[in-house]
Specification:
Blueprint lengths: L1 E4 L6 E4 L3 E3 L2 E3 L5 H6 L8 E7 L4 E8 L7 E7 L1 E8 L10 E7 L5 E4 L3 E7 L4 E7 L8 E3 L17 E2 L1 H4 L7
Parallel strand pairs: 6-14
Antiparallel strand pairs: 1-2, 2-10, 3-4, 5-12, 6-11, 6-13, 7-10, 7-12, 8-9, 8-11
Amino acid sequence: MIFNETDIPGAWVIDLEQRTDSRGFFARAFCAREFEAHDINPAVVQCNISYSHVRGTLRGMHYQLAPQAEAKVVRCNAGAIFDVIVDLRSESAAYCRWYGVELTAANRRMLYVPEGCAHGYLTLVDATEIFYQVSAYYAPEAERGVRWNDGAFGIRWPFEPSVISERDRAHPDFVP
């Protein structure tokens, strides 16, 4: 795997290191030792799949409070997304900053989202499926969110979303 640091401390874009031959390729998509070598939490207690029917579906921006804070490894299995994280760790040098990256089935790129960051994405094409590994169990009482278009973050989405759940629309303004 090839680990590329982002502007958000502890967040990484991970590319596969493909070994190709006439049959296709082989690549490691997860290795606890390699994750630990980059100070990435290798714990996986839950894997989730999210499917969106249409281009322009926005999901996010979600996170869980400590001690149920989640780290995530996000990958697009079908279609394409613009994946975004917002650093909500008040002690971080990147507090309230966002980072976005395009994850597609074709580029097989992954994004590691550290604990304390909100996460969300916008589908760029119809029939998009996301797979993510999570370090903590879902805890409804710890679930929180920030609004996708909150001016406190200034996220520059590629285009205006057309499908957003009522819950994601209703997240309150963030107060730093």
